[in-house]
Each structure stands twice: as structure tokens, then as C-alpha cells.
């Protein structure tokens, strides 16, 4: 919303619809975009329910061969795994925007984007009350849902981190400070 300024009818690719990605799928669908999401196939029915028009199994299909003419990519994998940010550049139409979430934009990625005629940017989550209010309104209206994979007492925060770092979370891991 704030970075890519997604418009109705645009094509948006979201790589790694696991924890953050399902929100991106729902926000992009809310804005009227055509949503393409990568995830392993077991996640595909869930992502379709959330609003994905197309799903790509990244474990069997190079996503850059299955998605094209994209206006915006939200890449949640980064170049640290299989050069995902650099590969995502190939899916963009001229002038399209890559939002590289993990790692941001390295000099190599910036050069590759320049050569491809597309725009790269990073993004960093910051405290933002108005945005959280807007998201809460979307949740209250039933436009956005929040999947909680597991809840942990605060004393088990290390276990929650270990699970999150495994990189296969479906939705959010929640720490509770009471009960
Ligand atoms: N810049 C910021 O402010 C900011 C904020 C939040 C998060 N982040 C970063 O954004 C990234 C995503 O966070 P998250 O919480 O969504 O992560 P996550 O919960 O670990 O989700 C990872 C998802 O990625 C999928 N995946 C794993 N390897 C993949 C690959 N090679 N290609 C495509 N998909 C792959 C997994 O799918 P399967 O389970 O189906 O295999 C899983 O669903 C993390 O690196 C995190 O540090 C940055």
C-alpha cells in the first residue's frame, strides 16, 4: 500500500507466502490486484482462499518461468536463497517494482534491476499506528484474516524462534504473557 502503491488490475507476485506473505496476498486482493503467490503445494488451497488468483510451487517450478508481466513483486525470500530477488526481476514488466524484504537492495541487485529496466527497493517495518488501525479495520470487516499456527507462553520464546527460523511457518507464531 505505502511502498508499491498497488492499483486495481495490476499483477502482483508474492514470493514465500508463509508468515508475512499471506497478509500481502490479502492486501493485494483487497486493492483489486491479480495476485500470484509462491509456496509449496500444500499451502495452495489456503492461499487461494485468501485471494491468490495463481499459485506456484517453488519446490517444483522456477517461478520466473511461470509468472510474467508483473507490475510489482514482494520478495520475502531474498537473494540469500537461490538468488530469488535477482530471479524475480525477470517477472517484472518494464518499470515494475521489486520490493526486496529480506536483505534489501545490494549493489549487484541494483545493477541487475537497472539493466532490466525495473525498479528495486527495500522496506523496513516501523511502528505505524495509522497503518495498524487501517489493518485492524480490514480484519474487523472480514477482508483480512490472521492465521495463528501456534501459541507459546513467553517462557518458550526460544522454542518459538527455533520454529520460526526453520522457515516453514503457516501464519503467525504468538507469544502470550499471561496464562
Ligand atoms: N524488512 C522487514 O522489516 C521485515 C519484516 C518482516 C519479515 N522480514 C523478513 O521477511 C522474510 C519472510 O518472513 P516470514 O515471517 O514470512 O518468513 P516465514 O514465516 O519463515 O515464511 C517463509 C515461507 O517461505 C517459504 N519458502 C521457504 N523457502 C522458499 C524459497 N526458496 N522460495 C519460495 N518460498 C520459500 C516457505 O514455504 P513452505 O513452508 O511452503 O516451504 C514458508 O512458507 C524473513 O526473511 C524475515 O526476516 C523482514
UniProtKB/TrEMBL annotation:
Its name, as the record gives it, is Zinc-binding dehydrogenase
The protein's matches in PANTHER family, at most eight in alphabetical order, are given as:
ALCOHOL DEHYDROGENASE RELATED, RETICULON-4-INTERACTING PROTEIN 1, MITOCHONDRIAL
Please provide an example of a Pfam family that matches this protein in its UniProt record: ADH_zinc_N_2
Any coiled-coil ranges, and where? none
Q: Which organism does this sequence originate in?
A: Streptomyces althioticus subsp. attaecolombicae
